[in-house]
From TrEMBL, chain A:
<protein>
    <recommendedName>
        <fullName>Thiamine biosynthesis protein ThiS</fullName>
    </recommendedName>
</protein>
<dbReference type="InterPro" id="IPR016155">
    <property type="entry name" value="Mopterin_synth/thiamin_S_b"/>
</dbReference>
<dbReference type="Pfam" id="PF02597">
    <property type="entry name" value="ThiS"/>
</dbReference>
<dbReference type="InterPro" id="IPR003749">
    <property type="entry name" value="ThiS/MoaD-like"/>
</dbReference>
<dbReference type="InterPro" id="IPR012675">
    <property type="entry name" value="Beta-grasp_dom_sf"/>
</dbReference>
<dbReference type="InterPro" id="IPR010035">
    <property type="entry name" value="Thi_S"/>
</dbReference>
TrEMBL record, chain B:
<feature type="binding site">
    <location>
        <begin position="206"/>
        <end position="207"/>
    </location>
    <ligand>
        <name>1-deoxy-D-xylulose 5-phosphate</name>
    </ligand>
</feature>
<comment type="pathway">
    <text>Cofactor biosynthesis; thiamine diphosphate biosynthesis.</text>
</comment>
<comment type="similarity">
    <text>Belongs to the ThiG family.</text>
</comment>
<dbReference type="GO" id="GO:0005737">
    <property type="term" value="C:cytoplasm"/>
</dbReference>
<keyword id="KW-0704">Schiff base</keyword>
<dbReference type="InterPro" id="IPR033983">
    <property type="entry name" value="Thiazole_synthase_ThiG"/>
</dbReference>
<keyword id="KW-0784">Thiamine biosynthesis</keyword>
<feature type="binding site">
    <location>
        <begin position="184"/>
        <end position="185"/>
    </location>
    <ligand>
        <name>1-deoxy-D-xylulose 5-phosphate</name>
    </ligand>
</feature>
<feature type="domain" description="Thiazole synthase ThiG">
    <location>
        <begin position="4"/>
        <end position="249"/>
    </location>
</feature>
């Protein structure tokens, strides 16, 4: 399945958000996630299914003013 | 110091975490400033380098209150979604709410700001809205549930200081019981002192420290200015007057013509 992860096109076998995070090396990283512009809490990642061409955002702490 | 959503801060200095020459210099700036709040943000993470994880470890070790922002958001939806993501990552209800409306000045879109503030306060957030000195907007933000207001001093990163002292003084006078923070536009410690002398409860700055030749020294300078301004405001400053008034008593002066 093809989808966009943080703006990059990727090919994945993952069919849930939690599986995608594991596959892409995020593992236990402190991140927040959104699918197609909608926030997906960590508690719902396991049941969040992924579909072709989904837009996935994985955000982490960063410097800010 | 005044309470910010029930949290009493030990001083009135809030410091950003961006644009420092290195993480070590940022840490040193925090140490020398004794700032008790750090603003942070969220950005895309790479599963390979995990830069955000390292940054978060540094911030945690600072032992300060963390104030996540919604910097760069231009719509209500974007800001609200970012706030939700920040609450989960940083584990705080605090959010520095920015809804930018104009690219050249980074002026807040105050209409979107009020709308987003209402949505977020209804959802349990404690909102620190980045706003202008407009009193009507300020009133609407308070109506929306905000208990803190953060008017700009000048456009973000400009270093111009307090562009509209009259408007800011009016804001202080109109809302004497609301914690007010000057957010953005400060370039020098004297400008921070001026804000505190006017009765503001805190200042939030980043560029003035991070882009100084010696960020840690500048951070310490700002800390001194904030402290001085706070003491001055509490000491009830004299009223200025147009004409001179001799400070040395005239009575008893020798007649020496």
């Amino acid at each position: 399945m093809k989808l966009q992860l943080n703006g990059e096109a990727i090919e994945t076998d993952a069919n849930t958000l939690v599986a995608l995070l594991e596959e892409q090396g995020f593992g236990d990283a402190k991140v927040a996630t959104a699918v197609n512009g909608q926030f997906v809490p960590a508690t719902l990642r396991e049941t969040q299914s992924l579909n072709e061409n989904d837009l996935i955002e994985v955000l982490a702490p960063m410097q800010g003013g | 110091m005044r309470d910010f959503y029930g949290t009493t801060l030990k001083n009135g200095l809030m410091l950003g975490t961006a644009q420092y020459p290195s993480p070590a210099i940022m840490v040193e700036a925090f140490k020398r400033s004794a700032a008790c709040v750090a603003t942070v943000s969220l950005r895309r993470e790479s599963g390979n380098d995990r830069a955000g994880q390292d940054f978060w470890a540094i911030i945690r070790d600072l032992g300060v209150h963390v104030l996540p922002n919604t910097a760069g958001c231009h719509s209500v939806k974007e800001a609200v979604t970012t706030a939700h993501m920040a609450r989960e990552v940083f584990g705080t209800k605090w959010i520095k709410l920015e809804v930018i409306g104009e690219e050249d000045t980074l002026q807040p879109d105050v209409f979107g700001l009020v709308e987003a503030a209402r949505i977020l306060t209804d959802d349990g957030f404690q909102v620190f809205p980045y706003t202008t000195e407009d009193l009507v907007v300020a009133g609407k933000l308070l109506d929306a549930g905000c208990e803190v207001l953060m008017p700009w001093g000048a456009p973000i990163g400009s270093g111009l200081g307090l562009n509209n002292p009259y408007g800011l003084k009016s804001m202080r006078a109109h809302f004497p019981d609301v914690p007010l923070v000057i957010d953005a536009g400060l370039g020098l410690p004297s400008q921070a002192a001026q804000a505190m002398e006017m009765g503001f409860d805190a200042v939030l700055l980043n560029t003035a420290v991070a882009k100084a030749g010696d960020p840690a020294a500048m951070a310490e300078a700002f800390a001194g200015a904030v402290h001085a301004g706070h003491l001055a405001a509490a000491a009830d400053p004299m009223e200025p007057r147009d004409m001179a008034a001799p400070s040395t008593p005239v009575l008893g002066k020798a007649f020496l013509l």
